[in-house]
Amino acid sequence: xxxxxxxxxxxxxxxxxxxxxxxxxxxxxxxxxxxxxxxxxxxxxxxxxxxxxxxxxxxxxxxxxxxxxxxxxxxxxxxxxxxxxxxxxxxxxxxxxxxxxxxxxxxxxxxxxxxxxxxxxxxxxxxxxxxxxxxxxxxxxxxxxxxxxxxxxxxxxxxxxxxxxxxxxxxxxxxxxxxxxxxxxxxxxxxxxxxxxxxxxxxxxxxxxxxxxxxxxxxxxxxxxxxxxxxxxxxxxxxxxxxxxxxxxxx
Length: 251
Hints:
Structural class: mainly alpha
Low-confidence stretches: none
CATH architecture: Orthogonal Bundle
Helix content: over 70%
Strand content: under 5%
Number of domains: 1
CATH class: Mainly Alpha
Shape: globular
Distance between the termini: 31 Å
Mean pLDDT: 88
Order of helices and strands: HHHHHHHHHHH
CATH topology: MetI-like fold
Largest sheet: none
Number of strands: 0
CATH superfamily: MetI-like
Number of helices: 11
């Protein structure tokens, strides 16, 4: 119980120290706002910041869905053919190590729809953990179980869907948790480059806007909102992972 409460206790102590130092030293809010000023800015701009969060979250979830579909499809193709694995693997790595901030301007120019352009950028950031983890899970299926399926007359596709994919579920879910937070990072980076989150302004745009106006408490409020969103995505996917693995083990 204490271990679960420890992070919250540490956070409260850190916030209290932060507020105390800001007040004691008389630090202006445009340099470093205290937690009270940040909370005041958030509730004072509640509607705009939450609308920005909805816009950013829409890009994030769409990118995560696309990354999941692409990552799993490529992993299955790579598991089914060594030629496909040799052809796709190096390019997937190259795409992953290329900073999305460098290619985002090109994507935004090439894709006419702002929302789709942002989703493409975030998908590029998010898909690789799903691809690599799922491919590793498919490759790690015990050979004796594959031989057993073949002895019982199962073809390659039956072996894939009835044995290898279920066996790769833990790896896939691990990749999904990582990709969930990366999709949010990719969405924010793309919004920074684009300057707008699709048809509505995302949180990244609000951060840029606040920095131009020296509304630093508002800027911090948007940053805190993004951090909380990332934590909730990671925790939510963690709960899904625990539920799915428990259900698989009990089946």
